[in-house]
Amino acid sequence: MVNLGIFGNKSVLDDSKLAKENVQFGVDYKRLSKYPIIGKDHVIRSNSVIYNDVTIGDDFRTGHNVVIRENTNIGDDVLIGTNTIIEGNCVIGSNVSIQSNVYIPINSLIEDNVFIGPCVCFTNDRYPVRVDYDLKGPKIRKGASIGANSTFLSNMEIGEGAMVAAGAVVTRNVPPFYLAIGSPAKIKPLPRLLRVHNRI
C-alpha cells in the first residue's frame, strides 16, 4: 500500500524516489506483489492511498482521500474525485470522470468515456451477510452517464450511451441509449437530442 502525495511526470515509482516524495509504506505484500505503476503527468492529492498491483495510465488526477485497492487497472485521462473508494479487482477505461464520494465495489467494470456523478453507490452483493453470493459489480458501458446520488443493485449493466437520472435506484439493466429514472427506476428511451456520446 502506498500513501501518495503529489507527483508529476513519473512512469514507475521506485524506492529511491519514494523517500523524497512523501510516500509511506503501510503493508507488507506478497513476494510477487508490485508497486503501483502510474503514467506521466499525474496529480495525486493528499491522503490518497494506492495499493500495490495497480496500473494507471497517463494524465491521471485525484481529489483528496481517494482509495484505490489492489488489482485495479485504470486507463488514460481519468479523474477520481475526493473521498472516492475503488475496492479493487476493477477495470476503468480512459476518459472517465468519477466525481466525489463515489463507491465502486470489487469486480466492477467501467468502460471509456463514462461520467459518474457525486455520491453514486454501486453494490456487488445481492444478499449481504445472508447467503453466499458471487460478488458482481456493475458493468458501465462506454459513454454512459450516471447521475448524482443514484444507487445500483449488484450485477447491473448500464448500456452504451445510457443515462441514469440523479437519485435513481437501479434494480435492472439499462439498455443502450435508454434512461433510468425514479425509485425504483423506470426505463425509457432517451430523447433524440441526448442520444449522443459524452464529451469528457
Walk me through what this model shows:
The chain is an all-beta fold and 200 residues long. It has one helix at residues 15-18, and strands at 2-4, 24-25, 37-38, 48-50, 55-56, 61-62, 67-68, 73-74, 78-80, 85-86, 91-92, 96-98, 103-104, 109-110, 115-116, 121-122, 139-140, 145-146, 151-152, 157-158, 163-164, 169-170, 178-181, 186-189. Strands 6-9-12-15-18-21-23-24 form an 8-stranded mixed beta sheet, with no helix packed on it. A 7-stranded parallel beta sheet has the order 3-5-8-11-14-17-20, with no helix packed on it. A hairpin with a 4-residue loop joins strand 23 and strand 24. The two termini are 30 Å apart. Residues 4-12 have low confidence and may be disordered.
Q: What is the typical, i.e. mean, pLDDT?
A: 89
The value of Rg in angstroms is 17 Å
Structural class: mainly beta
For the largest beta-sheet, the strand count, sense and barrel status come to: 8 strands, mixed
Number of strands: 24
Q: Unreliable stretches, pLDDT < 50, 5 or more residues?
A: 4-12
* Succession of helices and strands: EHEEEEEEEEEEEEEEEEEEEEEEE
Strand proportion, as a percent range, falls in 25-35%
What spatial order of strands do you see in the largest sheet?
Answer: 6-9-12-15-18-21-23-24
The number of helical segments is 1
Distance between the termini: 30 Å
Shape: globular
Residue share in helix: under 10%
What features would you highlight for this structure?
200 residues; mainly beta; seven-stranded parallel β-sheet; 1 helix
Helix/strand layout:
Layout: E1 2-4, H1 15-18, E2 24-25, E3 37-38, E4 48-50, E5 55-56, E6 61-62, E7 67-68, E8 73-74, E9 78-80, E10 85-86, E11 91-92, E12 96-98, E13 103-104, E14 109-110, E15 115-116, E16 121-122, E17 139-140, E18 145-146, E19 151-152, E20 157-158, E21 163-164, E22 169-170, E23 178-181, E24 186-189
